[in-house]
Automatic annotation (TrEMBL):
Organism encoding this protein: Floricoccus penangensis
Coiled-coil features, chain-numbered ranges: 173-200
One MF annotation (Gene Ontology) recorded for this entry: peptidase activity
Signal sequence interval, chain numbering: none
Keywords: Coiled coil, Hydrolase, Protease
BP GO annotations: proteolysis
Taxonomic placement: Bacteria, Bacillati, Bacillota, Bacilli, Lactobacillales
Protein's UniProt name: Protease
Length: 297
């Protein structure tokens, strides 16, 4: 009887001791790799599972299936011999169809993925100038992603996305680029200002020319009106029977014109004019005009 109780107690202790290693739980989006006597046995998804106790079965690793992001900085040189620091973010995850390779083939997957990306970038960037690198960084990231994804696929990893988040050249290079940009903008601003000044000058010249043209038209119309008025006055005197010579008529008309000019001059507040000092001076003007007309004939 006592022997039976002892055996029963031993069996109960055995199961109690084994219970701690008999059951195990795997979380969501995680896969447990189970080894039996040190050799791969099976994989277990999320939930509660049973394994052989006392080291027969053991959980070798718990592999995450969630998306992982790894960030790194790569220094390389462009085709125009400019050294740049590039910040790269890589998003990857374990291929659920190839979990064993992801665990057993790579000792340090994060560092090895970084090495592949560094190698791909140092092969692609030296083909481009600094300006081309800024313009095509998304294309380079896609090219690197495809190249690294092809390599990592054999190791059970899927490269989902590779992003070049920053391209940082040397401080002196950045300063030079800013100076070039500033000089270019100043040159463009100067050209625009010169165009604006040119438009102002041309517009002012056109306006001045139009003003002079209209002024000339006005003077011509004025002189024509004066001539027409003088002609009409002479005809009226002749038709009225006044026997007076053309020279005398011209003297009278010029005298009237002389007096009208003085009145117009005084109306505008002017105080000095260079004209003959007396009305008799109009006769001198008339004599000069007639002499000029005879000379032209």
């Amino acid at each position: 009887m006592w022997a039976f109780l002892v055996i029963l107690a031993i069996i109960l202790l055995f199961f109690i001791a084994a219970a701690g290693t008999l059951f195990y739980v795997v979380k969501q989006q995680t896969v447990a790799i189970i080894e039996r006597f040190g050799k791969f046995h099976t994989t277990a998804g999320s939930g509660i599972h049973v394994k052989l106790p006392f080291g027969i079965d053991r959980i070798a690793a718990r592999v995450q299936l969630r998306l992982i992001q790894s960030e790194m900085t790569v220094e390389t040189k462009t085709r125009d011999n400019v050294f740049v620091q590039m910040n790269v973010a890589t998003q990857y995850r374990v291929n659920e169809q190839n979990i064993t390779d992801a665990y057993y083939k790579l000792m340090n997957p994060v560092e090895q993925i970084k090495s592949y990306i560094e190698d791909a970038l140092r092969s692609s960037v030296p083909k481009l100038t600094l300006d081309e690198l800024f313009e095509k960084k998304d294309e380079i990231a896609l090219e690197v992603q495809h190249q690294v994804a092809e390599e990592m696929e054999t190791y059970g990893y899927m490269i989902v996305k590779t992003l070049i988040t920053k391209v940082d050249p040397d401080a002196e290079v950045k300063q030079s680029m800013n100076e070039i940009n500033a000089a270019q903008r100043k040159r463009e601003a100067a050209q625009e200002l010169a165009k604006a000044d040119k438009i102002k000058v041309v517009t002012a010249a056109e306006a001045e020319a139009e003003k002079d043209r209209l002024h000339g038209v006005g003077i011509a119309e004025q002189r024509k009106a004066i001539v027409d008025g003088l002609s009409a006055s002479i005809l009226e005197m002749k038709e009225s029977g006044v026997h007076i010579s053309e020279d005398e008529i011209m003297s009278i008309l010029l005298t009237n014109q002389y007096l009208d000019t003085l009145n117009q001059f005084a109306e505008h507040g002017n105080s000095s004019i260079f004209l003959p000092a007396s009305p008799e001076g109009a006769d001198d003007i008339r004599t000069q005009i007639l002499s000029a007309l005879k000379a032209t004939k």
